[in-house]
Amino acid sequence: GDGKDLLGTVAELKHAHRKLSEQNSSLLRTVAQCEDVNLQLTLEITELRAKLASAQRSAVRARSLTEELEETRQAFKEAQERASRTQTICTKLNNEVECQKVNIRRLEDKNENLTFERTCSEDSINKLRKFNTEL
């Protein structure tokens, strides 16, 4: 009976060995697949990190452009205000020029009248001189 028990145990051990070998092969295939998946995930992580870095650079550039745009808007607003003040000054100067033109016309008219009066006075003086000489 000991021989039969021993043969049965050996058969069980061989069977268990075969099962364990199959499980081992299966586990080795699973480990190989996991390594492949791990490698793919590592590559994806590297790509995602590169994309993240690119997105961060883009965000920094966008912030920089936003600040630059705000500075440009402020400069434009200040330029508009200066232009408005300059336009107001120009309008005042144009009005003043028009007033001066009116004054010049008045003075020219007055000068023309005075010249006429002078000419008339000179004529009168000349007539009086002539008359005085005749006397």
What is this structure, in a nutshell?
This protein has 135 residues and is mainly alpha-helical.
> What's the N-to-C terminus distance?
193 Å
Give the class from helix and strand content and strand pairing: mainly alpha
* Rg from alpha-carbon coordinates: 57 Å
Strand content range: under 5%
For the sheet with most strands, the description reads: none
Portion in helices: over 70%
Backbone shape? rod-shaped
Order of helices and strands: H
Question: Can you offer a commentary on this structure?
Answer:
It is a single chain. This protein has one helix spanning 2-134. The chain has 135 residues and is mainly α. The radius of gyration is 57 Å and the shape is rod-shaped. It comes from Etheostoma spectabile (orangethroat darter).
Topology:
Elements: H1 2-134
Domain KASH5-like coiled-coil: 4-135
Keywords: Coiled coil
GO molecular function, one term: dynein complex binding
Descriptive labels:
mainly alpha; 99% helix; single chain; 135 residues; 1 helix
